[in-house]
Specification:
alpha/beta, globular
Length: about 130
Amino acid sequence: MIVEIDQSGKIEQTNLDTIIALSNSIHYSVILSKKVKRTLQSLFRNNARPRMFIYQTFSALIAILLTKAKPKTKIIIDVEYQGHEDMIRNQILEYTKTLRKNGRYIIEFGYVGKTSPAHILAAQVAVLRVSA
């Protein structure tokens, strides 16, 4: 079975929390609050790397998600940042190694779709965050 990953609330939308969800045979999500996103964005700007904020943060969240969920199958990540997939994949693998986990995931990018369990989970968590 393939594991899918989707995002609700893009990284660059600093007025929203970001939820990255993984679903199919297993279900996990990670949340990055809008407050923390603004802090990270400021740090990247201060280090003259404002464009990297999006890709490195996205990659780090997925690495954390993979570390917690430990999927054993191919991973399909929804295409969020077209043209940057290779950089994101490499960052994810580096971050999982840094977290001292096996970074040997089979990662592909594709369109997950609104009926995907990962998309539904990310949307449900986002709704729960807003109503809490």
